[in-house]
Amino acid sequence: MGVRWQILSESERPRVGAFVAVAVARDDITATLVRDHLRLHGIAANFPPITHIPWNMGAYIWVRSDDEAEAVQLLHQLQAEWYTES
Questions:
Q1: At how many degrees (to 10) do helices 28-40 and 68-85 cross?
Q2: How confident is residue 44, by pLDDT bands cut at 50, 70 and 90?
């Protein structure tokens, strides 16, 4: 099936003002699941509204810069949970 989302390395993370992208998802359903996981744990995460993600692009998951470290830690936990279940 392939990788549906990934955590961005520190050097890959785009920054705009007080926001940083911490992950990228290959489809809107996965982006929603990743975003909602962060929101469930108190991180105000979002991604731009999309109607179609081209195969070579992705939806960036954005958080406030102040929440970057905690968001990345939560994403690593989520990644570990998903990969041990599959």
A1: 120
A2: very high
Domains and CATH numbers, the chain: 5-85 (3.30.70)
Beta carbons within 10 angstroms of residue 24's beta carbon: 23
- Tokens at residue 37, please? 């996981």
Q: What is the pLDDT of residues 53-71, one digit of tens each?
A: 555 578 899 999 999 999 9
Band the pLDDT of 50: cuts 50, 70, 90. low
Burial 39-77 (b: 16+ CB within 10 A, else e): eeeebebebeeeeebeeeebbbbbbeeebbeebbebbee
**Which residues face 20 on adjacent strands?**
15, 63
Q: Which amino acid is at 53?
A: I
Q: How far apart are CA 70 and CA 43, in angstroms?
A: 8
